[in-house]
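Quarterly update from the structural biology core.
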Amino acid sequence: MNRLPLEQIGFYTLSDNRCKNASSTTKLMRCELVLSDACNFKCPYCRGQRKELRKHMTLGEAMNVIDLWVDEGLENVRFSGGEPTVWKGIVELVQYTKSKGVNRIALSTNGSASWELYQQLIDAGVNDFSVSLDACCSAYGDKMAGISGAWEVVVENIKKLAQHSYTTVGIVVTDETVHDLKNIVEYAASLGVNDIRIISAAQYNKILDVAQTISPEIYEKYPILKYRINNTMNGVNVRGIDDTDSKKCWIALDDMAVAGDYHYPCIIYLREQGNPIGKVGVNMRKEREEWVKNHNTHEDPICKKNCLECIVQYNRDYRDYHNFEK
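Predicted structure, tokenized:
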């Protein structure tokens, strides 16, 4: 399979230029802050930070993390949870982040908040929404959310968000929903969103062969969806590292996930109950550089099984650009 430039796969934080130049002293290109594990949904596939490490952050603590990141040239930030819209102070935090000159402020949400709150968040500075939509009808949608009546609210909010901001739909595939993936994708496409992200749940973690049934007329419109469908057609799973891939997670040099008092290699590593790299503070970049040098992703079962294919490509490209041993 011919190499696709990172700019063309649909994830705006990934680029060949970043890959060629990233280090522990360049700008932080993307960071994600988990504000709390609190959520009003009960999605069956959802996993979070290890219980003994979980913490509901205060507004002051979250602002402190933003300050530390801004000092490192933060370009793009994502707020998540749990469900960030149930976290008190989310509007104030977005306003504060915007005032610090951060380029892109994203929010991962289940889409269940009031439209008034989403409008406040847009006005405060959120310019990227990622909304979960794991079904194409209310019966399955409510079942996946664990809340009756949730699906219709989510759908209406997705339609409105797509009119006001860059909006993607995230479709998590499980044993219960894989048979309906084609219909879910087609329904998501009808909502006017900018892109569609399909991903197998960690508990499912199989090549999405059914993705090949989605028509080119649909997936040609959406770069991330097209990238993932083309990968499945070439036998590439959304998750997992092959023996020929990089043994290092180079993206951790200028990318970061924080929850509570700790920073992690990535958000997936956090959600799969992995150990943090260290505590939040001024030494995080140095600690991450040491982690990258000493960590072998092929020997870590979390990385080996769960790393997303776009990050696998980034790390492989980084290795090749910098002529590291394969």
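The beta strands are 30-34, 76-80, 104-109, 128-132, 166-173, 195-200, 255-259, 262-264, 278-279.
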